[in-house]
Each structure stands twice: as structure tokens, then as C-alpha cells.
Design brief:
- The protein has helices spanning 25-37, 56-72, 102-105, 123-138, 153-162, 188-194, 208-211; strands at residues 12-14, 18-21, 78-87, 90-100, 107-114, 143-149, 165-174, 177-187, 200-202.
- With 216 residues, the protein is α+β, with helices and mostly antiparallel strands.
- It has a 9-stranded mixed sheet with strand order 7-8-6-5-4-3-2-1-9, sandwiched between helices.
- β1 and β2 (18-21) form a beta hairpin.
- The longest helix has 17 residues, at 56-72.
- The mean pLDDT is 91.
- It holds the Pfam family Acetyltransf_3.
- Residues 26-197 form the N-acetyltransferase domain.
């Protein structure tokens, strides 16, 4: 996939172990296969939207359509950047950054998942650190928000490790049941104090107008 028509395909965020980039069709097929293989244990549901329900084929299709939909529906005032996370040449998960009216609010929200086979290796923390660097250093964000079910200890631990503070609770309906989401917030000053993962960004300049961002 070439970035001539859609420069976001030329954007890359790298850490010592990972590369995050918008997947073209070959990487998107890999990402869908990771989702098909499972991203959480049976009986759990860590997501507000239960997209992991159904067969492996349905999970793969949901991921495939989601990523293509973010490209088709992108507007500078309402966007989701859905990045494939690559480790040792293999796709291992997805990291999203979403914002509405970013040019005004300078706030964005993160969301992510990792394939079961790639969890408990520190990858979740490193890929979120990469996204925070993109948001703050690359796009000039003032704050980054996230959220996790109150019983999702691993996700909450990643957020706290990176400096997110608690930002209240929210009740959501998931599969006909009330679930509680803990909202989290990371401001720029805290990020600057807490960041430890080296991150490099390439290919960002041609993308800035798509984000509603200005050149730092």
C-alpha cells in the first residue's frame, strides 16, 4: 500500500521492540488472523462493544471491516487511527487512537488489544507508550484518555504504569448486563515526567492536516 493518496499509510511509530503502522491488506489479513485466534479467555468480556463474540471467522471479519471503516469514514473533526502492532516481524495486536474535534480539544482516547499468544510480555505497555508519544509529541495533544472494566486488572495496570490517573466511573450495558468502566486520564505534564520508552515517529508531517493538528 502506497501513501500517495492516503499519507497515513506512510506513518510509522517505532519503539525498541515494536512498530505501529496503519495496515495495508497483507498486514490487515494478519491482524484479522490474530483476532480469530483469540484475544481473551472464554467467558471474559473486557470490551464495552462485544466484538469478540462469535466464531473465529466472525472475529476476523469484524477486525477487517473495522480498520477499513476507519479509513473510509475519516474526517479531521472525527477520526480513529487503527494501527497494527508488529513485533519480530509478526502482527500481534492493534492500538487505536480516536478523537473528535481534536483541533479544538487537543484530547484523544486510546484503545487496544493483544492476541492471547502475545500477552504478559510487556508488549501492551510498550505499544501504549508508543501511542502516547505520537499523541503528545507528534500531534501536540494536551491529554490522553482511556478506560477499562473495573475487573480488567492488566489493562488498568498498564495505564497506571504510564501515569494515567483516575477520571471517574461509567456504567455501560454489555450483553444485557450493567458493567462498570473506570475512566483514566493522562495529561501532558505527567507524560513528560513518566515516559521511559524511546519512541521514533516517521512520515507524520504529510498527515497532520488529516488529524486537525499543527506542526509542532
Amino acid at each position: 500500500m502506497t501513501p500517495s493518496c492516503w499519507p497515513l499509510y506512510g506513518l510509522s511509530v517505532t519503539t525498541p521492540r515494536l512498530e505501529l503502522r496503519l495496515p495495508g491488506l497483507p498486514l490487515l489479513e494478519e491482524l484479522a488472523a490474530v483476532a480469530a485466534a483469540g484475544v481473551h479467555e472464554p467467558g471474559e468480556m473486557p470490551f464495552s462493544f462485544p466484538w469478540t463474540e462469535g466464531s473465529p471467522e466472525q472475529r476476523a471479519r469484524a477486525v477487517f471491516q473495522h480498520v477499513l471503516g476507519t479509513v473510509a469514514g475519516w474526517r479531521p473533526e472525527n477520526w480513529t487511527l487503527s494501527l497494527a502492532v508488529v513485533h519480530d516481524g509478526r502482527v500481534v495486536g492493534r492500538q487505536d487512537l480516536t478523537a473528535r474535534d481534536f483541533a479544538v480539544t487537543r484530547e484523544a482516547q486510546s484503545g487496544s488489544w493483544l492476541g492471547l499468544a502475545h500477552q504478559n510480555q510487556g508488549i501492551g505497555t510498550e505499544m501504549r507508550a508508543a501511542l502516547a508519544h505520537l499523541a503528545f509529541e507528534g500531534l501536540g495533544a494536551r491529554a490522553l484518555t482511556s478506560g477499562a472494566m473495573t475487573d480488567n486488572a492488566r489493562s488498568l495496570a498498564v495505564s497506571r504504569k504510564l501515569g494515567y490517573g483516575e477520571d471517574g466511573l461509567e456504567t455501560v450495558a454489555v450483553r444485557g448486563r450493567a458493567r462498570t468502566v473506570r475512566r483514566l486520564r493522562l495529561d501532558r505534564a505527567t507524560w513528560e515526567r513518566r515516559r521511559t520508552v524511546p519512541v521514533e515517529i516517521s512520515g507524520l508531517r504529510p498527515c497532520l492536516e488529516l488529524f486537525g493538528a499543527r506542526l509542532p
